[in-house]
Batch of 3 targets.
Target 1
Amino acid sequence: MRLSEKEHATLDRLAEHTGASGVLQNKAIEQIQDENFLEANTLLVRQVVPAQDRVIDELSNLLTLAREASKNAVMAADRAYRLTHGLMIALGIVATGLGVLIARAVTRRTERIESALADEKTRAEVTLHSIGEAVITMDVEGRVDRLNKIAQEMTGWNEQEAHGMLLDEVMKVAIATTQEDIGFATDGADGVADQGAQAAQPVRLIARDGREFTIEQNVAPIRDTSGQVIGSVMVFRDVSRSHELSRKLSWAASHDALTGLPNRRQFERRIAEMLDTARLERKRHALLYLDLDQFKVVNDTCGHVAGDELLRQLAGVLTSTMRSSDTLARLGGDEFGILLERCGTDNALAIAEKIRQAVVDFRFVWQDKVFEIGASIGVMAISETSEGAAAVMSAADVACYAAKDRGRNCVHLYLPDDEVMSRRM
């Protein structure tokens, strides 16, 4: 049987959206490879994901058209059978011979109808298995009816084994960010569809053989011509690659590539959070601004490769002195920032001195040379009266330079009425 005009149009739109989605994904990958992370993230959010959603919509439309065509064929067969059966009874009374002829005609008609239904079923099968996304159909109780090839490959279940099983027995899923196991609703097709509609965020699919995929899913109820729910269809796709690219983009936007520490932007966000807790909860915190002494000597003597290695090693030394609640960030060059949460001034000064001593005790070895490094540290208290993040950072920076003015390799506390501070400000 031939496809209807609506089916032809839907297939054409499906091919167009699928091609467009592929082109956009390739562009996003090229942006990542060129390290254009912000452009890639914008492309993924604004174009790639909407394009993929359009593909899912067309797939759902195609399944609906195929089901409607099948139902229409069944209804037509039923009407033809009833009409022919009545005619057989009437003509049988008139002539037994004509009844035999009519019986033969009915048989041929029934064979044609059965052939048409078989063709319709074959067409639905071909459509289901040619779709590039994973598709699972369920009955009204939420039990698996059909799985296409992609769904079988991703879940690890073949269609015969999965038939009749509940969806959450076939699909083991967890929240992608927390790995917390989640199950699908067990109150039939309506419940599965409602839960699927809410699962807009990517989830982690754990296949039967232990493989894991990050997927996006859409679930919709299947209704008959009277609007009664007779099942549901789930369409899901593997977004592991794009999800990983997005995660890397997010990490790169908030971390220093050399040391792996949070960068200045992320550090300033943490300062803003601590300012909020200081004002709302009257918590006291402290900010340390650390500038390395003798770093230029290493760079000038051994080159920038050695300087980069020194920064990486020092990041590890500084991290070892931190409490679990503290935040260490690289602010740029040889400058580091440290946020001490719930820490009064006296304790902050003691921690700063401990950090300074750890840097002094550290020995950097490069080829046949050994270097001693120092650290000048400015300390700024954060309280409910503190101004914005920029002002807090500026004050800590001034205190750091005051420490350098005092002879380097020492700790200096910011005090507004300090004479050294006044000259710096």
Note: Residues 195-199 have pLDDT under 50 and may be disordered.
Target 2
Amino acid sequence: MSAFRSLSRREFLPAFASLLAATTAGVGAARAQELGGQAEWKQSYDAATNLRVARSTTPVLSPMTLQSTEQMVETYRRLASAGGFPQMPQANNLRVGSKGPVVVALRKRLIASNDLDPSLGTSQTYDSFVEAGVRRFQERHGLIPTGVINAATVTAMNVPAEVRLRQLETNVVRLRSYAGNLGNRFVVANIPAALVETVENGMVMTRHAAGVGKIDRQSPVMTSRATDINFNPYWTVPASIIRKDLIPKMQADPNYLTENKIRIYNQQGQELQPTQVNWRSDEATRYMFRQDPGGEFNSLGFVRINIINPYGVYMHDTPAKGIFGDDFRFVSSGCMRVQNVRDYITWLLKETPGWGREQIDAAIEGGQRIDARLAQPVPVYWTYITAWATPDGLVQFRDDIYNKDGLGQLPIASMQKAGDEDE
């Protein structure tokens, strides 16, 4: 460590990049295998394919991830001691073909974090190699890998190395808390990453982008079990959403409930018409609101996955699948939307007789309310991991959207986009 501290910042950064590159070079081909063809992981690199982020089979909750993250803490301590990363000037819409000093600064920043090979130099041209490096950086920070520099990418680049070090240290403690036996088959839902992993025999089987709770309606950190699945479910509107969302929407548009096929029931179970309710008062909070089944419009989509917990949250499909292409998927009232939900429930039900993929597809397409109880409940871990490393030497960072790291809210969190409520 003392040898690193004797280096200047200019000398250290290339050495740091070389250290990470050397670590990455030992990756086995097995760790790059495909994981179910999930749409959110598809990417294209025209050049520098050695810099692409391979889809590791290592779960975020695993002894290997813990060990790799502990090692990355030491690496980032040396980096922070040497002065951290070079500052990236504010820039927007830099892309292939762009030229100028800002591209030189971008190259230096990418080289420093091992997202660009140092041998490619500091040309003023934004070429396909730089684009691949930007994609790699974006993917490591949970941003859509467009290969184009935008405000969110620059903001992530300018988070100080000292902050990243403290993130890693904080998350080592979190990862250690999951060091016990999590089960042979389990689900990890990492809230800051807005990502769900299914894990079997210590390997990730499928990955799914997710939509999770907003800053003011957070998804809870918890340990639970998936017990049953509702096909073509009704959606009963929670009381909090009635107050915060439904009443204001009815004040703005008296046809909102009718257009969204949401029915009103009084305490005697009698259906009321929207015109019978005084929407300028809190009268609506005394009624039950229930949306008809229908994957194209129902807020739960075609499927609801029930998990045991005291918070009233669950996992589900959504008709608003466009959110899975967003950088910031903190859009719900605490429940979790899951992309490619058919793949997810196929994995959940694989040990339940009579529920293969053919039966699942038939249940969804039939449009009827059907329930399937898992033969063996599957452990589900809703976690909060904002920084981790994998055995290939790759380090991942996510924004501390709920400000749980104790570092103050990082700038990217302020960019969160508002979304419609759906549960």
Note: The mean pLDDT is 86.
Target 3
Amino acid sequence: MYPRYIENLLLELLQEFRILYLTGPRQAGKTTLARKMAKDTGMHYVSLDEKAMLASAKNDPNGFVKSLLNRQQPIVLDEFQYAPELVSAIKLASDNLAPHEKGKFFLTGSADVFSSAKTQEALPGHMARIELLTLSVTELAAGSFNLIDFLLADEITPLGPLPDMSREDFAQALINGGYPELQTKSARARPIWLDSYLQGRLYKDFESIYAAKGDYHTKLESLIPYLAGLSGNLLKYASIANDLSQNDKVVKSYIEALEWMFIVKRLPAYVKNRAKRQTIGMPKLQMVDTGLACHLLGLVTTDELLTSNFYGGLLESFVVMECFKHMAWSQQSMKLYHYRDKQKNEVDIILEQSGGRLIAIEIKASSAVSERDFKGIAKFAEVVGPAFKFGFVFYTGSDVLPFQVGGRTFYALPLSVLWT
């Protein structure tokens, strides 16, 4: 079992909230982690993947929850997305708990049912929601580096020796992705596993959160690979619908459902303050796991990936998702955006700290970096003024390099820092 650095946070939140909801992609390791934590802390584990349990939960939600509470143990409800009918019953049970009773329900689900149309009821003040994404490369390497804490520090701290990595190493990391079970699969077994993942699970989850009409299966089979090819690009629903000969409203609703299922991620535009008038407000599309994206695009070898038109966009998705993964166990909270103005100045990632300070990050697939690579960051710094804190270009070279642009100091950082 790979280390999951989010575990300490989950244990802490079980002491603070009545309900903890752990969500994230299917096969990201939620069940493995939930079983471990249930065993370590004496919680009663129940999986709604079991037909009898699911039938009981759907037939009599209140009775089902009452029967679990009769055990006088905190409860783990795995695969919670299969029974959104339980939301009201759990809310009622939570309302009836004494103020000191915390950590009573630990829910896990591979679809974010609390964002879907089927479960509009909220649990304000009762529930903490945490995402467990696929493995970060830091977890895969059993490293200790946290990207978010490094980027949000008040000063740029010196980095120790960095691993020597080639372009092929970075490309292989994208192909490998972060699904725990895939890390030990052979080259022949990987595509079989991923096909099974798509056919046997993805469509099953889609049915559970989206009231699809007609031949949605065929539409998804054309839409999902198309989205994989859009990694790192602005999301234009009408263009997608036109290219696929589909209705644009249906396309948008399907993409929303795929985001609830953690297949794609929409990165919003930074449109605040002085940047608002100049900014293009469209979100960017990112694939949550680059291994799945490469499979959807038929990219099997590093040479195929490096010579394709998709490498730069997939590398951007990779870094964006590493930010989200590291945020789960970082000491500081922040929000992620992208920036693009009407003059086509752009920054791949904007990190906004809770106090409003901004860090700009550009991602380059090249092993060389020059002053012009900081053009978008310099323009963003000019627009946001005193709120700007630091600017970085991540690249595939090996040295930390300072650059003076427009009276500010920016830094080029090797991507290999993620493996430390």
Note: The two ends are 20 Å apart (CA to CA).
